[in-house]
Amino acid sequence: MRSVGIEEELLLVDADSGEPRAVSGAVLASAGEDEELEKELQREQVETGTRPRTQMVDLAVEVRRWRGAASQRARAAGAEVAALATSPVEAHPSLSPDERYRRMAREYGLTVQEQLTCGCHVHVGVESDEEGVAVLDRIRPWLYPLLAMSANSPFWQGTDSGYASYRGRVWGRWPSAGPVEAFGSAERYHEQVGSMIGTGALLDEGMIYFDARLSRNYPTVEVRVADVCLDVHDTVVIAALVRGLVETAARAWRAGEPPSPVGVGLLRLAAWRASRSGLIGDLVHPVTFKPAPAETVVGALVDHVAPALSDSGDLTLVREGVEELFRRGNGADVQRAVMEETGDLGAVVQEAVRRTLA
């Protein structure tokens, strides 16, 4: 069974006002050697990471564990952690002290100054770069239902953005972010990455911000399209679906089935629609590329990977998780419901803090 690991970026916030707090230095300085906490671009956020796991129940335990560890360290620094993909209240991010980040700030200007977003990155093990690129080529149209499911960033600088995932729009400002063409081989993938770095528009390979890519550090495919989820269970459902996508794509590759010929233009529109709509209204269907209700599109994703989910023992977990998600709503729906009830973005953040650790 393929291993799965999750990286989550979390906001550091004031418990009362909900404003982001630039305390990552204190949080990381107090972390124990066994605590998987890392710095991120801005001092108002911190990243957690699980070890590779094969069982989703173990993955859920780890995600909860590292959220709890981050919360304990944040409280010692006078803050809380919130699994929010953008700050609902007005934010003025402050860059983490790192020479690479300072180079990025000089090169990319306002894109870096305003970049306070939190994503969820899912790593799934692959046997080789060749298998990994075959997977990347075949999962491209199926990534954007995951974005719709995870959407958790409706507010930006104190205003409702009109999007379920405004993080997706902000993140898209980076020059290499978003969907890509099918590569056809590992050799072609690495040639393309080298050519992109060779333009001088990217500092290094770490800035290959494709929606899904080969990991630089692990033998994995890394799917980066999702917002960080409010609810741990939603995070685990996303991870199970990603593993199902990777296994389904690898099987198709071994069977000689070609990837979808869909172009980047249509994929960008599917990504935009998922960011805009979330689970309310239509999405772009990954097979027909016509509008279809979100429940139909997510159902098509589950059906597409159902054999792989069944083999890994995750099918019931995913089906029940999807049902719960549509009944409860994603993070964007929850945030807007709290705002409608209270009229207070600080209350939105406080509810997010509670749900992050629930």
UniProtKB/TrEMBL annotation:
Substrates-to-products reaction catalysed: L-cysteine + L-glutamate + ATP = gamma-L-glutamyl-L-cysteine + ADP + phosphate + H(+)
GO BP terms in the entry: modified amino acid biosynthetic process
Annotated function: ATP-dependent carboxylate-amine ligase which exhibits weak glutamate--cysteine ligase activity.
Superkingdom field: Bacteria
Keyword ATP-binding included in the entry's annotation: yes
EC numbers: 6.3.2.2
Pfam families, sorted: GCS2
GO molecular function, one term: glutamate-cysteine ligase activity
Name by which UniProt lists this protein: Putative glutamate--cysteine ligase 2
The keyword Transmembrane helix is annotated on this UniProt entry: no
Originating organism: Streptomyces carminius
NCBIfam families tied to this protein: gshA_cyan_rel, PRK13517.1-1
Similarity field: Belongs to the glutamate--cysteine ligase type 2 family. YbdK subfamily.
Keywords of this entry: ATP-binding, Ligase, Nucleotide-binding
Annotated InterPro entries: GCL_type2/YbdK_subfam, GCS2, Gln_synth/guanido_kin_cat_dom, YbdK
